[in-house]
Write a structure and sequence with these properties.
This protein is mostly helical. The chain contains 10 helices and 2 strands; from the N terminus they run ββαααααααααα. It has one domain. The model is unreliable at about 1-5, about 10-20 and about 65-80 (pLDDT under 50). A two-stranded antiparallel sheet has the order 1-2. It has helices spanning about 10-35, 40-60, 85-120, 125-160, 170-185, 190-195, 200-205, 215-235, 245-260, 260-280; strands spanning about 1-5, 5.
Length: about 290
């Protein structure tokens, strides 16, 4: 498919051409393809992302009271009480809004590329595109369920083991989390997922399914594989309600996925996480909410 000489979904020959024409050519193609998406789609994404950030900012300000028990705030259990369906529902609602705020900016090129491809195939653009977005966010919602269970398991462990009450273990746990997150940046799975997230045109070509749901779900899985370690750091370092950590991780994810030198940025972030993890774990640096 072409529009003004641009392959919206490139054929094999087009993808081979990316390697010879360099990064600049690829980004020009992507920008041209995104420009074919109906204007209402990017406007809606901006409004949705802004609303999500507003909700998270309001909730963070309303939860300004510090945690009294050592280690609980740092390990992100400030949002959980008893394990109930109601508590799970509230947690998943807040988690999903947070994922929308943090992930939609970096997912926007993929979403707009899908919308542009849908516009060339069918006049009905809005429904498949929002099915794509919904299923993408749904993947992160499922991840939130796992996080909720793990946080409760950690909370129960602290409550039942008296020697954990002092919180002396927290710096070591945080240091290990930071170090493992940094090491994950070098794994083949991370590189595979990042490559898919950085190539919207190739991803849409390879994973296109009518309706948008399956394509969005697959992109969500790659995105989860790319970024889950960053959110483990956020929860461990400052809890879910830290706007500063939310902004930092949003910028890191955006840089990895969108900027021309994203893979190099990924390596730099990895080295920084490992170094910080060693310093925090040894007690040389104090890090928390």
């Amino acid at each position: 498919m072409r529009e003004d000489g641009v392959d919206l979904i490139p054929r094999e020959r087009s993808r081979r051409g990316w390697a010879t024409h360099g990064v600049r050519s690829a980004y020009l193609r992507l920008r041209s393809a995104i420009g074919l998406a109906p204007l209402r789609i990017p406007v809606s994404l901006i409004v949705l992302t802004g609303a999500a950030w507003a909700v998270m900012l309001h909730r963070a300000l309303s939860m300004s009271a510090p945690m009294d028990r050592a280690g609980h705030g740092a390990m992100g259990v400030e949002m959980i009480g008893e394990f109930t369906l109601g508590g799970l529902g509230v947690f998943l609602a807040v988690w999903t809004v947070m994922m929308g705020a943090m992930m939609l900016p970096s997912a926007a090129p993929m979403i707009l590329t899908f919308a542009a491809a849908q516009a060339r195939r069918d006049r009905n653009v809005a429904v498949p595109t929002w099915m794509f977005v919904t299923c993408y966010i749904l993947v992160w919602g499922y991840a939130g369920l796992v996080v909720y269970v793990l946080l409760h398991a950690g909370k129960d462990l602290v409550d039942h083991l008296a020697w954990l009450e002092s919180g002396a273990w927290a710096p070591l746990a945080l240091g290990v989390t930071l170090t493992l997150a940094g090491l994950y940046q070098f794994t083949p799975l991370k590189r595979l997922c990042l490559r898919h997230c950085r190539s919207p045109l190739a991803f849409v070509k390879q994973h296109w399914r009518d309706g948008g749901a399956e394509t969005g779900f697959r992109h969500g899985l790659y995105c989860l594989g790319c970024c889950w370690a960053f959110f483990s750091v956020q929860v461990a370092a400052a809890g879910m309600m830290s706007i500063a950590w939310m902004l930092l991780i949003t910028l890191v994810v955006f840089a990895e996925k969108i900027l021309p030198h994203g893979p190099r940025i990924s390596v730099a972030v990895a080295l920084g996480l490992i170094a910080l993890g060693l310093l925090v774990g040894s007690g040389a640096v104090r890090l928390g909410g």
